[in-house]
Amino acid sequence: MNDTVFGKIIRGEIPATKVYEDDDFLAFLDINPVTKGHTLLIPKIQYVWIHEVPDDIISAIFVKAKELINTMRRGLGCDYVQLGVVGNEVPHFHIHLIPRSLSETNVQTMRPHEPYENLEEMQLFAEKIKKELI
C-alpha cells in the first residue's frame, strides 16, 4: 500500500488541488510552489525512482507532461515550463512542472554545484558512464 503523501492524495484521504486526472496519472498544484501554477505530475502506481518505472509508463508520463506544459503555457501565459525530476522529497516518482517567464532574473535550478578538479577528472567520469552503456 502506498502510504506516502501522494498515495493519500490519490486515494482522496488528503485534499489536493487537481488540474488533471485519468486512470494512470494525476497532476495537482504543489502546496509549496516555486512559482504560482507549479504542478506535480505523478503516476498512480508508486515507483520510488525513475529507473524503476516501466518504459511504457515513463514514455506516457512524459507525453502527458508535454501536454500539460502546452496547457500551462496557454492557461497561465508563461513563456516556458521548467521540468524537474528530483526524486528525494517523496518516495514516489514525480515530475515538477514549474511555469517560468523569460523576464525572470533569478531562476533557481535546484541544483547544487560540485565542479570537477580538472579536465582529466571530467573525462574519467565520462568514461565510467560510457563503459556501462548497453
Topology record:
Elements: H1 5-10, E1 18-21, E2 25-29, E3 39-43, H2 55-76, E4 80-84, E5 95-100, H3 119-130
Antiparallel strand pairs: 1-2, 2-3, 3-5, 4-5
Give an account of the 3D structure.
A 5-stranded antiparallel beta sheet has the order 1-2-3-5-4, covered by helices on one side. It has helices at residues 5-10, 55-76, 119-130; strands spanning 18-21, 25-29, 39-43, 80-84, 95-100. It has 3 helices and 5 strands, in the order H-E-E-E-H-E-E-H. A hairpin with a 3-residue loop joins strand 1 and strand 2 (25-29). 30% of the residues lie in helices and 19% in strands. The model has no long low-confidence stretch (mean pLDDT 90). With 134 residues, it is of the alpha+beta class.
Quick synopsis:
The protein is α+β, with helices and mostly antiparallel strands and 134 residues long. The chain has helices at 5-10, 55-76, 119-130, and strands spanning 18-21, 25-29, 39-43, 80-84, 95-100. The protein contains three helices and five strands.
What descriptors fit this protein?
30% helix, five-stranded antiparallel sheet, alpha+beta, 134 residues, 3 helices, globular
Widest beta sheet: strand line-up: 1-2-3-5-4
Q: What is the approximate shape?
A: globular
Number of helices: 3
Helix and strand succession?
A: HEEEHEEH
Class computed from helices, strands and strand pairing: alpha+beta
Q: Tell me the Rg in angstroms.
A: 17 Å
Nearest-integer average pLDDT: 90
